[in-house]
Queue: 2 jobs
Job 1
Amino acid sequence: MKTLPMAHVYQMLEPGPVALLVTARDGKANVMTMSWHMMVEFEPPRIACIVSGADHSFTALRETGECVIAVPPASMAERVVEIGNCSGRDVDKFARFHLETKPAKLVAAPLLADCIANIECRVIDDSLVERFNLFVLEAVHSWINPALRAAPTLHHRGWGEFALDGEIIRLKSRMR
Amino acid sequence: MKTLPMAHVYQMLEPGPVALLVTARDGKANVMTMSWHMMVEFEPPRIACIVSGADHSFTALRETGECVIAVPPASMAERVVEIGNCSGRDVDKFARFHLETKPAKLVAAPLLADCIANIECRVIDDSLVERFNLFVLEAVHSWINPALRAAPTLHHRGWGEFALDGEIIRLKSRMR
């Protein structure tokens, strides 16, 4: 994995790919599937996400204020769904789904070696957690897997239906 | 356009398509391109989005507390980029880009007839507007264009590069 410049982080999340949220608490890591996230700021990259209070990851995120957001390639689709179908309360998802991890640089949660990008984050605002389960995160370091850079990602359309990235088009935009 | 059931609204936005945000203020409508949005709740459908204070739409959204989020098909890609390349301060984007509108049911902002879905929204939380330009909206009515339901959408990857929805896959998910 190579460092992904902070200025490029939004290009990983703005297209709305299904992501994996990795946390660690009391030395035990966990991972969940997440589709409710958006960019908030380019630099420093800030990201908002919704993590339900019913998710096992909620407590870890709330208590540690740290996580990794990983963007899986479409080739991981079956594992992405299986990760979402079970809870870290009951199983070690890393062992069950053969998820290779690497230590992060600045947070306790591990990186996922098979993902396109890994974004190390810290919670910077929890004022809407109580009302909406909405966390605002700031990226503190991020990683790109060059071999997977062009891999298609998954876009969830409900009930296990996903659109994969297809044709790429380029238009003259003045917008970043 | 047919009514889209509230329970299906998230399926339009969760996949992360580029959207159009339509507002109206003092009888004058405006539209901007938006990629920073996420689902917050299934039902009632709640949506968070970032609208920069530099955007002309910001004042209309702030003052009226109402908008329409429209999901354009990929066939509108050039107009979607052009809409983002100019400001409603300077031009009537509906006239310039030949955008056909229809009256909404519950908000003053109009619907975009050529879009896949139109979601009428009201602002329900503005507590993070000052810090992050983050609005939380609640859908009050929504519309689907049945003829465009299967149309691919656009996923922005930065600087005018878009991935179009490609292959559709279906996996056994216990998650909605």
Job 2
Amino acid sequence: MKNRKITLSEQEIPEKWYNIIADMPNKPLPPLHPETKEPIGPEALAPLFPMELIKQEVTTDKWVEIPDEVRNIYSIWRPTPLYRAYGLEKALDTPAKIYYKYEGVSPAGSHKPNTSVPQAYYNKQEGIKRITTETGAGQWGSALAFACNHFDIECEVYMVKLSYQHKPYRKVMMNTWGANVFPSPSEATEAGRKILAKDPNTTGSLGIAISEAVERAATNEDTKYALGSVLNHVKLHQTIIGQEAVAQMEKVGDMPDIVIAPFGGGSNFAGLAFPFLRLNFDEGKNIRCIASEPTSCPKLTRGVFRYDYGDTVGMTPLLPMYTLGHNFVPAPIHAGGLRYHGAGVIVSQLLKDKLIEASAHDNIEVFEAGVTFARSEGIIPAPEATHGIATAIAEAQKCKEEGISKTILFNLCGHGNFDMKAYEDYFAGNIVKHELTSEEINRSIAELDTPEIK
Amino acid sequence: MKNRKITLSEQEIPEKWYNIIADMPNKPLPPLHPETKEPIGPEALAPLFPMELIKQEVTTDKWVEIPDEVRNIYSIWRPTPLYRAYGLEKALDTPAKIYYKYEGVSPAGSHKPNTSVPQAYYNKQEGIKRITTETGAGQWGSALAFACNHFDIECEVYMVKLSYQHKPYRKVMMNTWGANVFPSPSEATEAGRKILAKDPNTTGSLGIAISEAVERAATNEDTKYALGSVLNHVKLHQTIIGQEAVAQMEKVGDMPDIVIAPFGGGSNFAGLAFPFLRLNFDEGKNIRCIASEPTSCPKLTRGVFRYDYGDTVGMTPLLPMYTLGHNFVPAPIHAGGLRYHGAGVIVSQLLKDKLIEASAHDNIEVFEAGVTFARSEGIIPAPEATHGIATAIAEAQKCKEEGISKTILFNLCGHGNFDMKAYEDYFAGNIVKHELTSEEINRSIAELDTPEIK
């Protein structure tokens, strides 16, 4: 029998998260105050996040210990399996060896609980009673609901009204874990009421939902806010993925030449890739790490490296990032998790320094890749995950053309059980390409009045 | 850290299925011809099933070897994890130790691929080009689609029209694995056309869908039919579950006093329980095995033991079974997999001989159990699975009342990702109890003109 699945025991769940900042040749530039544009310190985050997470946001320690209680909850689904993709290799008739790490085995169905669990834990440690967040498609909201339920913390999710109406099942999932889900804009916040007064029929946006969740945290002593990607501490928590994958690759006596992961805000990619980049730093390895983004939201492949806001309204600190401009509105692709205008600061600096690469795929290419994968490997991937598959397939085909064998590893970050509508649209021919013209991108970037980076 | 999850390596996937018939003190009575009512042999099944499965249907060998290629596909998701339910134990404040085997990690989300994979394999071996089946809610149809896709066999699924319209996502899942899904009744069969001519607006029924799938197999040389429960070979394949569970319990140095599984046609229950019953037979153990059924379809707890048809129309052989009568129409509960009027012959004989037990739970009790489980263990169970949880909770509460500790193991046969509508209904207070009166049951049984069993 083929050795298809490489597993680790519960005892092999890593005991520390890896902080890549310690190893970066050029550290990320400091955040700037949104108005004064002067560098700001971590204390600016205190109204929104518990102290321990703020410490993690700025620490330069190479390793951060994972609390036992967090590892205990991780063990519900971790270590996750790493697969040798024999079926996909055969379907592509490629000399490449393909592996994937499967994060869809978590109860919420994606990699997101890797960070929602420690975030809920640290909030609980500091006596916080309620955590608020926003969610678009619902992946992050359900991961946070799952985590808060475990620590008996109230969870308040502001869900973009359009998604709330069109994706009722993600909402029910959050309810099942005890979360309160509000269609955003809602009557529960000043920000929501203002917008509703102006336009009672608005379908909402992620920007509005963020404003509501942040307002609740900023105006209530016992309430904090949680974010599912972009920030350093989120990336830190996700490195559990890559550390397990390194151990699993070593277990089968192999090591990837190429590591690939989907890219939204950066935590998915950071999670798998950073522990392999550590091997480049520490052991002189030369592993290529490629971030996969949609051509409809190509901040890494076509964006600009400069200071920009994390939100649409311009309330967050200014961060040094690859961005399409904070006013950029991506096409409504099914991979909702990849529709973010910018990239987290660590990944941006790494790309600037050419320590990682990026690749973009259009909407049709990724669904072709997703169906090829489902039919050859048996697992139906989430639309976000299909982007990593598309890059892996492209690299495997290059191997075939060049007649060489490389070892490719990608992050299968979630299953598609809640995304069947996307596949239905694909089979019905209702998926469109969404290629951006240079004019569209330049226009959005030209609007920026934020500081440039020399 | 607590040892929450007991795992096995790929190499520990069992190499044989366990055939309980070899150990039964009283063997099941023979099937009878539907018209002559004379005992019939396995050759009667030849138009519908490949020879190897017919051999497995009647074999008295204690062990049946699992082909390497089947074990190879099993390894996509097997061995499945066995969990110690620390969270549920705490929520119930019980001295009982609770374990569960989790079958929802399969790509189709339930235990069904344990049998769809070998069924597709044996059909492929015998040169079959197409397999037909019926499906209600879609669990079995998607499991068969998954398996046929792997062996490059055409898969034709007749899906009850009402489900086809109300559960489009299960259909898309089957399409993603390349299956053709027809709303039943369809124009593709004589049986379907007849019914449509009479009533073009019918929403279909499982009985009609069976007739269509069977007709296609019976009238095409290269086409066979597949069934997802009830039959002996289906139960045989599912024993992979219990064999792994025995090994996992031994690994933690524990052994269940009570083994519990949901009951529809019997393969779910057989899968977990039979390998533990083997320990009763072979090693003189005294493990109680309890089948959990809905009070709305209580064939084991309130049915009669006699010959009855497997289908509604009365075309199948007469089988010795616990039954509510083949015309019994259960209430439309969300646990569609448990809405079958009868029980498979092996389980029926075991119950008759008091070697197993049965327990029934109403619709509200099971959703309460499901939500308690989701909030204490993190995994949202399928409606079918909540029945096993309800029995486990009842037994754990008995332990608390009596101040004794027992070890309880149940089969968490699938996740609820495709059943969020059921939870939505539960939270909205739209779930009703469906208790049957004795009159209703007696009326259905009184209609039977099938042979009684002395």
